[in-house]
Amino acid sequence: MSNKEKGANAERELYAMFIDNSFRAVRVAGSGVMDNTSCDLIAGKIGKKYCVECKASKKRSKYITKKQIEEFMIFSEIFGLEPVIAVRFNREGWFFLSPSELINSGKNFLVSLELAKEKGKRFSQFFE
Question: Mean pLDDT for each 10-residue chunk of the chain (128 residues)?
Answer without folding.
Answer: 79 96 90 65 96 96 95 95 97 97 96 97 93
